Amino acid sequence: MVVPYEGRDSGLWGPGHRNLYFEAGALLGELQGHDRVSFFHVDRGTASGTWHTQLVDYLNDVGATHVLTHIEGDPGAGDGTWTWDSAWSLMDRFWGGVLLGTMFDSAFRYTFLKGKFLARMSPRFLLVDICMPMDGALVRGVPEVGPVNMPMSDESMALVEERLSTVEVEHDVSFVGVLYPNRIEMIEALRAEGFSVVVNPHRQDEARTRQETMANQPGWLEYMAGLAGSRATINFSESSAGGVQQLKTRVIEAGLAGTLLLTDDVNLTSRFWTPDVEYGYFSSLGDLPGVAESFLSDGQRSERARVAFAHKSRELARTGFWGEIDSVLLRRGLPSVLA
User: Fold this and answer.
1) Close Cβ partners of 164 (under 8 Å, ≥ 6 residues apart)
2) Nearest-angstrom CA–CA distance, 21 and 80
3) 160-218: per-residue pLDDT in tens?
4) What is the residue extent of each domain of the chain?
5) How far is CA 19 from CA 11, 70, 119, 130, 306, in A?
6) Does domain 154-317 have CATH number 3.30.420.10?
């Protein structure tokens, strides 16, 4: 069963919205049969005690073996409310399944402690961290899932392919994100080397600050079209919490958009793709123009890397998420979700 953080009344439910919980549930249905997957939506404004009880009842009614949900905040709340400790206590007492708790921002201490607390409550909790390795981080010696790539349903991949079919490659390099001073210097350095660089190509305005970048966001399909419009795109891996690198979702999105990835991630992207063969690695902003030049000046090298990166990204989008979860479930002696 999937309990989405942004459900049916969010405006982001359905294919083509980059909604992890829709994609994970829809993909599992494609892999295992849609009759084996159910969704439990919590409408905005529902009291926590109400949905806690309703969830436990529904889990037992449908015979659910696993729950996948977002444990950084309550489903449907959108206001920072967190009562998963109470919900998991009730589930642990009156339901015998496994809670698969997903996190995006465990680099933030308070968020990390939420997962640690739930893990200490019951061994039937498994953390699914999208961005960071977490083995032994919650309970010493106990494996968890992470990092793991964004799943993608066939429905959403079809929408991506349809949108990208009309996109023409117009730029050498794209950058999506906030224009901090050092990033502006990076862009100017690339342009000084003769590269055509586009910033936030999915937007019609010139967003520069974090607030402007986050406001009035275009849809996800337009974002993917923006990535596809350049030969390469830049990814910075440092968490907004600072001091730690993450496997950003943009990594696999670059592959699904069919563009070459240039990233400063030291050892997370390389868990899934081969550095300097399937993507370009730069160790510093000063290093970036040379790395870009080494790929983009060699059409055959950049095309081989782009094609290989895209091929593996499609494989990971279909098999990586649930495959990694199932592997760790078996290592933990917990029931398989794919059996």
Assistant:
1) 224, 225, 228, 257, 258
2) 18
3) 999 999 999 999 999 998 888 888 898 999 999 999 999 998 766 565 555 565 566 78
4) 2-146, 154-317
5) 10, 11, 25, 13, 25
6) no
